[in-house]
Design brief:
The chain is mainly α and 248 residues long. It has helices at 3-27, 34-63, 81-99, 101-109, 120-142, 152-181, 185-208, 214-247. The termini are far apart.
Length: 248
């Protein structure tokens, strides 16, 4: 991405992601929480680290160390279907596991006194922060100073992809937080890993074997992410609403 493309991508993606987080929290009658937003931004890098630790051995085994040096805009290796599934599982485990860490650590530190319920709202903040760090990392790794063209078509779909990712990260982080609150962490964490595996595997398949056009692919991922977020809001609605009413 050129510097202009990168700046526009950052501005649009971050603005729409923050709006998505604000609107989602508004629906459950609460506000953005700066502390947990920052927790989410920081924990992203641990999640990517765990993801890489699981995925890299298989990638190096299949493609050698040269896979570490493929440039973003050069043609990279072709992946077998089982590889795409493995990498999707690695992403699910690494990234979803990390989203619960801020809550686990804080509950342990305060002997379960804080944070106060409902934890779902804090999970939304963690997921939003997680997505914001991902947007920034993608902008940094994709920046190419020699690239001069500005393709608004690609910019739109790239920004929509990040918007979809934000919806998804907020939903799964919220579900993990809800699971922690209800002492059903394993069940909800497993669910989120499966959801993450599904969306990453679908994206990988559609990228490797372009059965759909770019717009169709991005719309599919957006609808999937939106449905996951809506489902999470419906699932936790009664619990979150009751807890917030008790505080007033």
């Amino acid at each position: 991405m050129s510097i202009l493309y990168t700046l526009l991508y950052l501005i649009i993606s971050i603005a729409f992601s923050i709006f998505a987080g604000y609107l989602t929290l508004h629906l459950i009658k609460t506000l953005l929480n700066g502390q947990y937003l920052l927790f989410g931004m920081g924990i992203f890098f641990l999640g990517i680290g765990l993801h890489s630790l699981i995925a890299l051995p298989a990638a190096i085994f299949m493609h050698g160390f040269k896979i570490l040096f493929y440039e973003v805009h050069n043609s990279g290796p072709h992946y077998q279907i089982w590889e795409l599934l493995y990498y999707a599982v690695a992403a699910g485990i690494g990234q979803e596991l990390s989203k619960g860490i801020p809550l686990w650590m804080e509950l342990r530190r305060t002997e379960n006194q804080t944070p106060e319920h409902p934890l779902f709202r804090l999970g939304i903040n963690i997921g939003l922060g997680f997505s914001l760090s991902e947007i920034i990392l993608i902008a940094i790794t994709d920046w190419q100073p020699v690239m001069t063209d500005l393709n608004f078509f690609n910019l739109f779909w790239a920004s929509l992809e990040r918007f979809s990712a934000t919806l998804f990260h907020m939903a799964t982080a919220g579900l993990i937080a809800y699971g922690i609150e209800k002492n059903k962490t394993k069940s909800f964490l497993t669910l989120c890993i499966l959801l993450h595996t599904t969306i990453n595997f679908s994206a990988g398949i559609l990228n490797e074997y372009p059965l759909l056009s770019t717009p169709s692919t991005e719309l599919f991922l957006f609808i999937f992410s939106l449905l996951v977020l809506i489902s999470s809001l419906l699932l936790t609605r009664k619990n979150v609403g009751s807890a917030l009413l008790e505080k007033e």
